[in-house]
Specification:
Length: 501
C-alpha cells in the first residue's frame, strides 16, 4: 500500500468520526438554536463567545501536551534520542497525562471557587457565574481527553478515535434534544427551577457528554503510571511553549471574531452581540469546511512525524498538499453552490451574513494549506517560528478589525480572516524553504486555487442574473467541470488511492 493511500484512508476514517459527527451536531444543535432563539441573535452571539474562550483555554491549559506526545513518544523512534532526551512512548504518555491532570485540577478549582470573579470580567454577564462554572468543568474534561486521543492517533488507531468522537457528539445531540425539545413538554420539567437561558442547557449537555467520554476513554489509560519524568517534561515544555502561542493565536484568529465585534462594532454591546450572532452563523456554515481540514490535520500530524525522512519530504508532502487543495475545492464549491439550500439551516434572522460565505471558505482553504506547510517547524524543532508567524496573524486580524469593524461592519472579520491566513501561508512557506526545504508544486496549487475562485465568482454572477432553473443547471455544470479537472489533474494518483488490490 502506498503511503499516500494509507494517509488518505486514515483521513477518511478521521473524517467519518469528526466530519460526519460534527455535521450531525451542526444540523441538530446549531440549526435548533437558531430557530429556538429566532429573533434573539444576541444569545447566539453569547454561545459563540463562550466557545471562543473555550478554544483558547483548552490550548492554554493542555499546554499542547498532545503535540509533545507526538514528538517525544514517536513510536518509530523507540528509545531514539529526541532533542537529547531518551524517551519511550510510555514515558512520554505518563509524563504528558500527569501534567494535564494537574492542569485540569486547576480548572476545576477555578470553576468551584472562582466562577464569580471570572464572570465579573465579562462585560454584561456578571450575573451568570454558572456559565463560567460549566465551562471550567467542560474545558477540564476536554483537556484530560486530549492525551488519550493523541495516543490513539500516534498508534494508528484511527477507527477507535473515530468511534469515540461519534459517541461524544451523538450523546451531546441526544442530551440537547432531551433538554430543549422533549423534557420541556413534561409537567415535571416545568415544575423545576428554570434556567436563565436555553444556552445554559446546551452547556450542561456538553458537560455531561464530556464526562461520559472521559469514562469511556479510561481503557486507553491502561498501564498509565501517575508520574513525571522531570527532565523529559522540561524538554517537552521547551518544545511546545511556542506551540501554545501558536494554538492560542490561531484560536484568536478563527474564533474571536465575536469578541472583536462585540467590542469594535459601532453600536452598544447588546446590538453588537446580535450582529456577532448573525456573523457566527455564517462562520459556522463555513466551519463545515473547517471540519474537513480538522480531519486532514488529525491524520497529517502523526503521519508526518512517522514519515519525516528526506525522501518522504521530497515525494509525499507536496503531493499531499496539492491533493488537499483539490479535495478541499470540492467541499468549498459544494457548500457555496448549495447555499440556497444551506441557508435554511438557520432562521431567517441569521442569514444576513451569508454573502460573506465565499470569503470565509477561501480563508479556511488557506488555513488548511497552512496546516500542511507549517509541519516543517515541528519536524525541525524550530517551533519558535510557528509562534512568530501566528503572532503576525494576530496583529493583522486586530489591525483590520479595529480599523474596519466600525466602518464596514461584520464583513471586516471575514476579510481579516482571509488576509491573515493568506499572509501566514506565504510567510510559512518562505521560511520553510529556507530552514526545512520541501518540494511543493506551487504553480499547480496556485492554478487550483485560481480555478476555485473563478468558479465562485461565476456562480455569484449566475445567482444574481439567471432564473432559478438556469441557475441550478449552471451550478451543476460548474461542479462537473471542477470534478473533471480534479480527476484529470492527478489521474495517476487517484487510481493508486482508489485501487482495491
Amino acid at each position: 500500500m502506498s503511503l499516500i493511500k494509507k494517509f488518505a484512508g486514515q483521513t477518511l476514517i478521521y473524517g467519518l468520526g469528526s466530519v460526519l459527527s460534527r455535521i450531525v451536531y451542526y444540523l441538530v444543535v446549531v440549526v435548533l438554536l437558531t430557530y429556538l432563539l429566532s429573533e434573539n441573535t444576541t444569545d447566539f452571539g453569547v454561545y459563540g463567545l463562550y466557545y471562543a474562550y473555550a478554544s483558547l483555554l483548552i490550548t492554554l491549559f493542555s499546554f499542547r501536551m498532545d503535540t509533545a506526545l507526538f514528538r517525544f513518544g514517536n513510536r518509530t523512534a523507540g528509545k531514539a534520542s529526541v532533542m537529547g532526551q531518551q524517551a519511550s512512548l510510555s514515558e512520554a504518555f505518563d509524563t504528558s497525562m500527569t501534567a494535564v491532570i494537574i492542569s485540569a485540577a486547576g480548572l476545576v478549582c477555578i470553576g468551584i471557587f472562582g466562577a464569580q470573579a471570572v464572570a465579573n470580567l465579562i462585560e454584561g454577564y456578571e450575573a451568570y457565574p454558572q456559565y463560567v462554572r460549566w465551562f471550567a468543568f467542560i474545558i477540564a474534561l476536554d483537556v484530560l481527553n486530549l492525551i488519550p486521543f493523541a495516543k490513539l492517533r500516534l498508534t494508528d488507531r484511527a477507527t477507535a478515535f473515530a468511534l469515540y468522537k461519534i459517541f461524544n457528539v451523538a450523546l451531546s445531540v441526544i442530551l440537547i434534544l432531551l433538554f430543549l425539545v422533549i423534557l420541556p413538554k413534561t409537567e415535571f420539567w416545568q415544575n423545576l427551577e428554570p434556567r436563565d437561558s436555553i444556552i445554559e442547557w446546551v452547556f450542561i449537555a456538553n458537560l455531561i457528554a464530556s464526562a461520559c467520554l472521559s469514562l469511556t476513554l479510561l481503557p486507553i489509560l491502561k498501564g498509565y503510571k501517575p508520574k513525571i519524568n522531570t527532565r523529559l517534561l522540561m524538554k517537552m515544555s521547551w518544545y511546545v511553549f511556542p506551540l501554545v502561542i501558536v494554538g492560542m493565536a490561531n484560536a484568536f484568529i478563527q474564533f474571536f471574531s465575536v469578541q472583536l465585534q462585540k467590542t469594535f462594532l459601532a453600536d452598544d454591546v447588546i446590538r453588537n452581540l446580535g450582529q456577532a450572532g448573525v456573523y457566527d452563523f455564517t462562520r459556522r456554515v463555513a466551519g463545515l469546511f473547517v471540519i474537513f481540514t480538522t480531519a486532514f490535520n488529525y491524520a497529517a500530524e502523526p503521519f508526518f512525524f512517522n514519515n519525516s525522512s528526506e525522501s518522504d519530504r521530497k515525494e509525499l508532502y507536496g503531493k499531499i498538499c496539492r491533493l488537499f487543495v483539490l479535495v478541499g475545492g470540492i467541499a468549498i464549491l459544494g457548500l457555496y453552490l448549495g447555499v440556497d439550500l444551506i441557508k435554511y439551516l438557520g432562521d431567517v434572522h441569521f442569514r444576513g451574513g451569508l454573502h460573506l460565505l465565499p470569503v470565509l471558505l477561501m480563508a479556511y482553504l488557506f488555513l488548511g494549506v497552512y496546516y500542511n506547510i507549517s509541519i516543517w517547524y515541528k519536524l525541525s524543532d524550530k517551533t519558535s517560528y510557528g509562534a512568530m508567524i501566528s503572532l503576525i496573524g494576530v496583529v493583522i486580524t486586530l489591525v483590520i478589525s479595529v480599523i474596519y469593524l466600525p466602518k464596514i461592519g461584520i464583513a471586516a472579520s471575514a476579510w481579516a480572516t482571509l488576509i491573515t491566513y493568506g499572509t501566514m501561508v506565504i510567510i510559512g512557506y518562505l521560511l520553510g524553504q529556507k530552514h526545512f526545504p520541501i518540494a511543493y508544486p506551487i504553480s499547480k496549487i496556485l492554478r487550483d486555487m485560481a480555478l476555485i475562485t473563478c468558479i465562485i465568482v461565476l456562480a455569484y454572477l449566475i445567482r444574481k442574473n439567471f432564473s432559478i432553473v438556469l441557475k441550478y443547471f449552471c451550478n451543476a455544470l460548474l461542479m462537473i467541470v471542477y470534478l473533471s479537472y480534479v480527476w484529470w489533474s492527478e489521474k495517476a494518483e487517484w487510481k493508486k488511492i482508489f485501487k482495491t488490490a
